Amino acid sequence: MSRYLLPLSVLGTAVGGAVLLKDYVAGGACPSKATIPGKTVIVTGANTGIGKQTALELAKRGGNIILACRDMEKCEAAAKDIRRETLNHRVNARHLDLASLKSIREFALRIIEEEERVDILVNNAAVMRCPHWTTEDGFEMQFGVNHLGHFLLTNLLLDKLKTSAPSRIINLSSLAHIAGHIDFDDLNWQKKKYDTKAAYCQSKLAVVLFTKELSWRLQGTGVTVNALHPGVARTELGRHTGMHSSTFSSFTLAKPKLEPVVNDGFSKMCVRKDT
Questions:
Q1: Which end of the chain is more exposed for a tag (fewer CB within 10 A), N or C?
Q2: Catalytic residue check, 200
Q3: Which of 4, 24, 194, 200 is catalytic?
């Protein structure tokens, strides 16, 4: 029997370590039961992954939810799923392509004209480590979508957010921002060899810097701005990396399950472990 003790001990340690790692990367559980009736929330990239779960949880809490997505077929399907699960009919799909400045302006104009207020803007949509693609307007795709698209959208909706104050802007960044470097001389990677990881880190650092500056500029307006790292989850964001295809990562990385942490009636988010 003693000859099995060491292998069993090693196996138990490995399994226990994997479970602890899964708990760590998934983030903490959110105990809040607060509701947001009458609040209008825009969530970009809400047809799948973290964005969809965010929209779902906020819809459960009574919000008027606007799913802003590029693929309208998937967006409509997600809105239908959320309405069915939450019995909240105030969940609507709107077209928004963050790789197109024209689309962003059209979306913002529609929101300004149709919505009485915007209480929460969740800038969630992102692309990660894609090939060296460019946006409709010629920007490197990751910088263009992750930062520039949300930068323009936020500024176009800023007056609406101010008149709806107290309101909140939530920018999803990543711990990858720590490794980021803003190359102001070559933001579009035209002079150097393209590095998908470095480009992603640069875009997420830009999100953090934008959040800090905007938060400073909006002091006293009633608009609060936060950036967050949502934890590591198994979503379509990693489609270009292969990071979710291994057996280890499939076990370690939880599917996204988000709940809002509410402060003074408005939402920030934390990751809830998928059980």
A1: N
A2: yes
A3: 200
Q: Please provide the DSSP assignment of 105-132 as one string.
A: HHHHHHHHHH-S---EEEE-----S--S
Q: CA 120 to CA 168: how far, in whole Å?
A: 5
Nearest Cα neighbor of 109 from 69, 47, 159, 145 is: 159
Give yes or no for a contact between 153 and 107, defined as CB atoms under 8 angstroms apart. yes
- Which token pair is 135? 């946006």
> Residue for token digits 């990396």?
241
Q: Take residue 230 and report the two structure tokens written for it.
A: 């949502």
Q: Which residues partner with 120 through β-bridges?
A: 41, 168
Taking only the tens place, the pLDDT of each residue in 107-145 is 999 999 999 999 999 999 999 978 998 999 999 999 999
Tell me if 128 sits within 8 A of 92, measured CB to CB.
Answer: no
**Rounded Cα gap, residues 154 and 160, in angstroms:** 10
Q: Is the pLDDT of residue 267 over 50?
A: no
Query: Which of 2, 16, 87, 80 minimizes the C-alpha distance to 46?
Result: 80
